[in-house]
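Homework help board

Subject: predicted structure for assignment chain

Our instructor gave us this sequence and asked us to write out the predicted structure in token form, then describe one feature. I got the tokens but I'm not sure how to describe them. Can anyone check?
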Amino acid sequence: MDQVLVEVSSQVATITLNRPERGNALNSDMVVEFLNLFTKVEEDPSVRIIVITGAGKFFCTGFDLQTSSTIPEELSNIFEAGYRFYKTINDCCKPVIAKINGPALGGGLGLVFTTDIRIALKEAYFSFPEIKIGVVPAIISRYIVPEIGLFKAKQYMLTGEKISAEQGVLDKFITCIVKDHEELNNKVNQYTKQLLNPPVAIRTIKKLVNLIGSTENEELKKDYTKRIFVELFRQMNYEKQSRSKL
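My token output:
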């Protein structure tokens, strides 16, 4: 059975984590399979939007600890694979929607934080359970801490407490919640229509927001924002002038 499924329809690629018997926990083979499929749909010009969801009752329960090693070199490889996994999704030039069909735990919640729009079933919940077994959410912390802040990050990571979908909205890391699967599908469809905007602008906005949120270097931020301001407005005005001559 394929551990990751992909379906493309009407310019939208839906990628499904497909290990329901393990809560869609990620293992090494699954990460490789996911990245291969994700890269293909990102590079496919017919795909404008990517949706990530899970099979069964869970969205994703993070990395499968049953497959973990005690050998430092192997653990280092697992870290590098995880780092690439989250960075690839976060840096995607196309809008990525998390269709959260159930609980997202640990690295599964980290996956949520790398997406752009996050729609969750009301019954879904979230947590960082790593603390309960004496480890930390190391790889995903770079995406979580800047978004929810030091105070909330410490609270959730130190306690491993259960976070309801409603609380996720209040803490501003969930876009909206829905009551059932039908409404979940409808809300995802609604957002896919809203996201069918010019690809160059989409790509630039994603890069801009990621840059602004990841650096304190004011000169770097100024240089980049100035460059895209000049480039995009020049292109827009050029197209206006070209149309006026027709």
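Reply (TA_rk): Your tokens look well-formed. For the description, you could write something like this. Residues 152 and 209 are 21 Å apart (CA to CA). That's the kind of observation they're looking for.
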